[in-house]
Amino acid sequence: MPKLSVIVPFYNVQQYAPDTLRSLRMNARSDFEFVLVDDHSKDETPAILERAAEELAEVAQVRYVRHEVNGGLATARNTGLDVATGEYVTFLDGDDWLARGYLSELVTAHEKLGCDFVRVDHVQATARARTVHRVPVGLRGEVLDPRAAILPADRSTSVDYAYAWAGCYHRRLVDRGLVHFTDGLRTAEDRPWIWKLHREAESFAVLNLYGVFYRRGVATSLTQIGDVRQLDFIRAFDQVVEETAADRDADKLLPKAVRTYCAIIAHHLAEIEKFEPAVAKELRARSAAAIQRMPQGALGDVLDTMDLKRSTKLRRLRRRASSAKAAA
Q1: Which of 21, 20, 39, 167 has the alpha carbon at shortest distance from 95?
Q2: Angle, nearest 10°, between helix axes 296-305 and 308-327?
Q3: How does pLDDT run across 205-221, given as a tens digit for each residue?
Q4: Is the bond preceding 152 in cis, omega lying within 30 degrees of 0?
Q5: How confident is the model over 182-194, as pLDDT tens digits?
Q6: pTM for this predicted structure
Q7: Beta-bridge partners for 124
Q8: Angle formed at CA 218 by CA 214 and CA 224, multiple of 5 degrees
């Protein structure tokens, strides 16, 4: 069994893939497994990966899988999880990269702590600028209760730091199905995933370790494209709220889930100009319907405690949805 499997989905990233693959080589060990998943790229990415797979096989174990149909990031990660054989698993996106030696430090620290999963800070790279983003957990290098890290509802917590590649996950979580993603989600795929992980895993820790470089502002990224795939955040957060409502601690956790959902809706409405007109109209309609589906008691409490600008926008949407429902 490999000590660590690194799952790396790629889709139309010919410009960035060489940097990503070079960083894997700088982290290679004979007991590491690199799982390269091409999600049916239409550019030169497959040719780059085929060559890289041969070269990486000299210094690590390599699996290369190519999708016949594009399925999105969540599906590509699941493909990687289904073929990965490592004792530990981590992720990297096909346009990001790692510092030299980072993976060895990551898995060594995880082994020493013995917990279900660990989370790490990361460096955001926007053009030439570099910014450190930290996991919103104060205690470092200590084993903690994942469920306790979900709250408080009115502050940024570990479930708001939803980057799958900013961490490492023990095989026992993979076997329990806690590391797989909701198949087919095109965006916000990390949100139901991180909530499930924190509700159902038994232990985690946060490391003082920098080594993941997240490339921001990539033209092909869905965060930069205002098409209908962006609206998958609604399906993702519907799942978060539904699963949290069924949890044994629903009364404590639902306010956090609803508050985060409302904040994301308000964020997208504030940037509605980036969407194509038809998608903008769909965003308003789906957001209004989502507000109607939320637990209304929790929603009322959230709107009462949210800042005025966002709460006003959401209340207006809520009233319109109620009026439209009554008219129907």
Answers
A1: 20
A2: 150
A3: 999 999 999 999 865 55
A4: yes
A5: 999 999 999 999 9
A6: 0.94
A7: 131, 214
A8: 115
Whether the Cβ atoms of residue 78 and residue 183 lie closer than 8 Å to each other = yes
Edge-to-edge, what's the strand order for the sheet holding 97-98? 97-98, 212-215, 122-126, 129-133
DSSP state of 66: E
| pLDDT value at residue 69 | 96
- Tokens read off for 222: 């869905």
CA atoms within 13 A on the CB side of 312: 4
Residue 135 in contact with residue 225, Cβ under 8 Å?
no
Contact 63, 36 (CB under 8 A): yes
Q: Rounded to whole angstroms, how far apart are CA atoms 87 and 253? A: 31
Enter the tokens of residue 162. 């939803």
Alpha-carbon Rg for the chain, nearest whole angstrom, is 20
Pick from 238, 257, 156, 121: which is nearest to 199 by CA? Answer: 257
Would the pLDDT of 222 be above 70? no
- Let me know the angle formed at the C-alpha of 167 by 54 and 133, rounded to the nearest 5 degrees: 110
How many CB atoms lie under 10 A from the CB of residue 68? 6
Nearest to 164 by CA among 12, 7, 37, 27: 7
Buried b (16+ CB within 10 A) or exposed e, 81-111: beebebbbbbbbbbbbbbbeebbbbbbebbe
User: What is the distance between the alpha carbons of residues 200 and 189, in angstroms, rounded to a whole number?
Assistant: 17
Name the helix (H) or strand (E) containing 253: helix 250-270
- Yes or no: say if 310 and 262 are a contact pair by the CB < 8 Å rule: yes
Look at residues 263, 55, 87 and name the one whose alpha carbon lies nearest to residue 170. Answer: 87
DSSP letter (8 states) at residue 231: G
